Amino acid sequence: MAKARGSVQVRDPKVLAGLRQARELHERAAEVEEKIDRLLDPIKDRLRELVLERDRLLYEALGARQKFFAAAKKAYPQLDTHRSLRCEVGADKAYIRWDDT
Fold this sequence. Notes:
Elements: H1 13-75, E1 86-89, E2 94-97
Antiparallel strand pairs: 1-2
């Protein structure tokens, strides 16, 4: 079965007015997008640097956390028997808690 194609000429002024309004709004949105891009250009490089630094710091923090738990398991072998270890830090103390449920 072949697909049928067709077209209809739209003459209704109300419908055409809606189409014109949609086109105008689309053009205004494009202008606003250009303004946004011009304003963001100067800070994009700095933002990229900050995101990279944040990611590096989070990666290093994750590594330090893993080293901490490895050292804690070495100092306290009974921690190997527990799951879901987490650390709570007080003034001068750290508590390792677990949830074996």
